[in-house]
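Observation: inputs received (chain + nicotinamide-adenine-dinucleotide).
Thought: call the complex predictor directly.
Action: predict_structure
Action Input:
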Amino acid sequence: MEPQSGRKRILVTGGAGFIGSHLIDRLAGEGHAIWCVDNLYTGSKQNLASVLQNPNVTYVQHDVTDALHLEVDEIYNLACPASPIHYQYDPIQTMKTSVFGAMNMLELAKSQNARILQASTSEVYGDPQIARQPETYWGHVNPIGPRACYDEGKRSAETLFFDYHRQHRVDIKVARIFNTYGPRIRTNDGRVVSNFIVQALRGDPLTIYGDGSYTRSFCFVDDLVGGLVSLMNTEPEFTGPINLGNDREVSMLELAELIIKLTQSRSPIEFQKNVPDDPKRRCPDLTRARRDLNWTPRVTLEDGLARTIAAFRALTATAV
Ligand code: NAD
Ligand code: UDP
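Observation:
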């Protein structure tokens, strides 16, 4: 792919996944030339249905744990399973994807003099001991527990990003993404929003792990994608890390009740045992994002859930 004026050659790893495919929709819509790299571990080419006909979008089946050589101007490194059941299924592969994947993409960025953005996570804060997590918080992670392959993998990736920046002057951006939801989360993804919606639409009990008091803060995917693109377009000296998410914190019981209401479901709520090392609370401090990116999440939880439920309903007739 050859660059044209104003048009960038952009690599999105994990581009067949939930967030990656929405990001590609946005970037392809702006006329950029896109490489989508994915090994389809949790992604699907169906997520790319609307863009694969676009001659500017090229799909490459590739595992980021192997080196990659492409001519690019920008890299969004999103490849990594994000749902606990999927990243814990093969924890060694998860760690390899985070660490070797980051290193391979940083090497590519270095060789191409390309800008690279890492999809890091609120999981770097672990089970936080403070109510709202600013970027200055170093976190509270169990390094040997079942979530460590993901949490420590992502922490190591951040370390690599900042070391490549200091040692090789690679132009980096690090986004700490908080829980994101929207259409295209797989029905069997295992994360809470998709589980509750599928259960509510089927009339099955909504499964709350624990007593429902644990909290998360949910960002609609369109807002998140806007934040990622804003971060990518900041001045070279701006590296982050920067929190991207929504700062309305809800308990899992509130979320279950809201989804039952929005789906007009008659499903009961079923309390099940806690999962190990489950963070009790999570809510981003968005001061930096608002100040430095002039970005703020706009979609309310009610609107975003309604849009997600509509997308899941459209699948109900077939897959759900
Ligand atoms: P997802 O599972 O839908 O997408 C991940 C994609 O990466 C999939 O298409 C998968 O096939 C691909 N992939 C996995 N391992 C790979 C490998 N070794 N080589 C090539 N491709 C590989 O998850 P998502 O929710 O879209 O998350 C995207 C990124 O954002 C991930 O890095 C995740 O850690 C990060 N993130 C997501 C959330 C969230 O709430 N969705 C929160 C924090 C961080
Ligand atoms: N959760 C739940 N029921 C489910 C799936 C998840 O109660 O069917 C809880 C989970 O224990 C956690 C919260 O919802 O407290 C968010 O879980 P998710 O897997 O969506 O994301 P993460 O834990 O990675 O933030």
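Thought: report the result.
Final Answer: The pocket of uridine-5'-diphosphate (ligand 2) is lined by residues 84, 179, 191-192, 195, 207-209, 214, 216, 252, 275, 278 (CB under 6 Å). The two ends are 39 Å apart (CA to CA).
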